[in-house]
Specification:
By secondary structure, the chain is an alpha+beta fold. The protein has two domains: about 10-220 and about 340-445, Zn peptidases (Aminopeptidase, 3-Layer(aba) Sandwich); about 220-340, Alpha-Beta Plaits, CATH 3.30.70.360. It contains eleven helices and 18 strands. The strands form five sheets. An eight-stranded mixed beta sheet has the order 1-2-6-3-7-18-8-17, with helices on both faces. Strands 12-14-10-15 form a four-stranded antiparallel beta sheet, covered by helices on one side. A hairpin with a 3-residue loop joins strand 1 (about 75-80) and strand 2 (about 85-95). The longest helix is centred in the N-terminal third of the chain and has 22 residues, at about 30-50. One of its GO terms (molecular function) is metal ion binding. It holds the Pfam family M20_dimer. Keywords: Hydrolase, Manganese, Metal-binding, Signal. InterPro entries: Amidohydrolase, Bact_exopeptidase_dim_dom, Peptidase_M20, Peptidase_M20_dimer.
C-alpha cells in the first residue's frame, strides 16, 4: 500500500488509548473466535515463513504457489497464473451471491531492521536491474495469512452460508498493476463475477485488535507525473548565454504549491509533492535539462483533472516567462500505468458490515477513520462494474504496550513501509480473520 497511513478520528483514538485489555471478549459469542484461536499456532508458522521469504512485485511465483497449495487443501478449485502471478480459488456452495476476497502478495525493496528472529534476509533484483533487500514492510504477509485463515473458516462453516466464494491472491499491488492485469486476464469472464468485493489492510496507527473503516472514500487517486524541463546549457561563468533549466525547474516547483493553496477549495483534499529534482553534473556547468518527479493525490475526478491540467499549465507558463521558444517547452508526462484510482467503500455494504463487526467486537474495537491519501488498486475491482458493492477495511497492528507508551500518537511509531514496521502478529491476525470471516458469513448468510 502507498503511504501515508490512516489516521484515527480523535474521539475514538482517545477512547482506544484508555482501553486496557489487549483483546476483549467478543460481544457476539459463537465458536468462530475459538476456532481461529485454535488455528493460530499453525497460521503464525505460515506468517513467519511468508515474512522471511518476501518477493518483489511481479516476481511472486513462490508466494503465489504457497497460497494455491493452501486453497487446494480446502477443496477450492484453484487457477494459478492469472494476470501474471495471480491465483484464483473458487468454492461453490449452493445458490446465492458471489463474494470476492482479495489479498496482495508482493513485498517491498526495503532492508528490514525489525530485529525479529524471522526477519527477511532476502536479496533480489528490481525491474530496473538494481540489487536490493526485500521486506514485507506493508504487511502483505499478514494479509495473506488472514486470507488463508478466512478460507479455512469458510470451508469449515459451509453449513452457515450459501453462494460462491472467489478468493484471489493479487500480484504487484505495490506498483499499481496487479488488479488491472488480473481483470485483463479474464477475472470476471473466466471465473464467477462478484456482487461483493472485500479486502483488508493492516495499519500502523491503530492498536492491535481494532477494526477501522471509512464511509465513502478510503484511499486517494494517486498519479505519478514526470516533468522534463528543457534549457540551453553552457558555462556557469557565463549564465547570460544560457537558459538555465535549474532556475526554471525551481520556479515550477514553487508555483506548483499554489495549485493546492490557491486553486483547490479548502474543503477538498489535494496533494502535489515534488519527490525528485535531478539536474546537472558539475559546479561550473549549466545543464541542458532538469527532471522533476511528482506524486499527485486527490479524491474526486474533478480535483484530479484540475491538478493534472494545472501542472501542465504551470510548467508551460513558467517556460514562456523564462523566454524559452516553443521547441523548448517542458514535457509533462502522467504515467497512466502507475495510476491508483480512489477506493470508495459502498454505503449499504459499509453500514451492514460495521453493524456486524460492532455486534461481534463491541463499539470500542470498531472505529471510524478518515480516508488516507495513500493508494490502493483494490478500487479497480468495483470500478470495472459499478454494480459491485465493495469495501476495504483496516485492522490495527501496533502492539498495545507500544501504543500506550506513545500515548496513541502514531507519529511516534514506525509507519507502513518503514524498515522497522512489525505488527503484533497474534492479536492482529486473530482480529483480521475474525473480521473478514464475519463479513463473509454476513454477506453469504443463508
Amino acid at each position: 500500500m502507498n503511504p501515508p497511513s490512516f489516521r484515527v478520528i480523535p474521539s475514538p483514538r482517545a477512547l482506544l488509548a484508555t482501553t486496557a485489555l489487549l483483546l476483549p471478549a467478543p460481544v457476539l459469542a459463537d465458536p468462530l473466535a475459538e476456532q481461529i484461536k485454535a488455528d493460530l499456532p499453525n497460521l503464525l508458522t505460515l506468517y513467519r515463513d511468508l515474512h522471511a521469504h518476501p518477493e518483489l512485485s511481479l516476481q511472486e511465483k513462490t508466494t503465489s504457489a504457497r497460497l494455491a497449495t493452501e486453497a487446494k487443501k480446502l477443496g477450492f478449485t484453484v487457477t494459478p497464473g492469472v494476470g501474471g502471478n495471480g491465483v484464483v480459488a473458487v468454492l461453490e456452495n449452493g445458490p446465492g451471491p458471489v463474494l470476492l476476497v482479495r489479498t496482495d502478495l508482493d513485498g517491498l525493496p526495503v532492508e528490514e531492521a525489525t530485529g525479529l528472529p524471522y526477519a527477511s534476509q532476502v536479496k533480489a533484483v528490481t525491474r530496473e536491474g538494481a540489487q536490493t533487500r526485500v521486506m514485507h514492510a506493508c504487511g502483505h504477509d499478514l494479509h495473506m495469512t488472514a486470507w488463508v485463515g478466512t478460507a479455512r473458516r469458510l470451508a469449515a462453516l459451509k453449513e452457515r452460508w450459501s453462494g460462491t466464494l472467489v478468493m484471489i491472491g493479487q500480484p504487484a499491488e505495490e506498483v499499481g498493476v496487479g488488479a488491472r492485469a488480473m481483470l485483463a486476464d479474464g477475472l470476471y469472464t473466466r471465473f464467477p463475477k462478484p456482487q461483493f468485493a472485500l479486502a483488508l489492510h493492516d495499519v500502523a496507527d491503530l492498536p492491535a485488535g481494532t477494526v477501522g473503516y471509512s464511509r465513502g472514500h478510503m484511499s486517494a487517486n494517486v498519479d505519478s507525473v514526470d516533468i522534463l524541463v528543457k534549457g540551453v546549457g553552457g558555462h556557469g561563468a557565463s549564465p547570460h548565454t544560457t537558459r538555465d533549466p535549474i532556475v526554471l525547474a525551481s520556479r515550477i516547483v514553487g508555483t506548483l504549491q499554489t495549485l493546492v493553496s490557491r486553486e483547490i477549495a479548502p474543503q477538498e483534499t489535494a496533494v502535489v509533492t515534488v519527490g525528485s529534482f535531478l539536474a546537472g553534473s558539475k559546479h561550473n556547468i549549466i545543464p541542458s535539462e532538469a527532471r522533476l518527479q511528482l506524486t499527485v493525490r486527490s479524491y474526486s475526478a474533478e480535483t484530479r483533472r484540475h491538478l493534472l491540467e494545472g501542472i501542465a499549465r504551470i510548467a508551460r507558463g513558467e517556460a514562456i516567462a523564462a523566454g524559452l521558444p516553443e521547441e523548448h517547452m517542458p514535457v509533462v508526462t502522467t504515467k497512466e500505468e502507475e495510476f491508483y484510482p480512489s477506493v470508495f467503500n459502498t454505503g449499504p455494504l459499509t453500514e451492514r458490515l460495521v453493524a456486524a463487526w460492532t455486534r461481534r467486537f463491541g463499539a470500542e474495537r470498531v472505529v471510524e477513520v478518515p480516508p488516507t491519501t495513500g493508494g490502493e488498486d483494490f478500487s479497480r475491482y468495483s470500478l470495472s462494474d459499478k454494480s459491485i458493492q465493495s469495501m476495504l477495511f483496516v485492522v490495527g497492528g501496533v502492539p498495545r504496550a507500544r501504543w500506550d507508551a506513545a500515548g496513541g500518537d502514531p507519529t511516534k511509531l514506525p509507519s507502513l513501509h518503514s524498515p522497522r514496521w512489525a505488527p503484533d502478529a497474534e492479536p492482529t491476525l486473530q482480529t483480521a480473520i475474525e473480521a473478514m470471516s464475519t463479513a463473509a458469513l454476513d454477506i453469504l448468510a443463508k
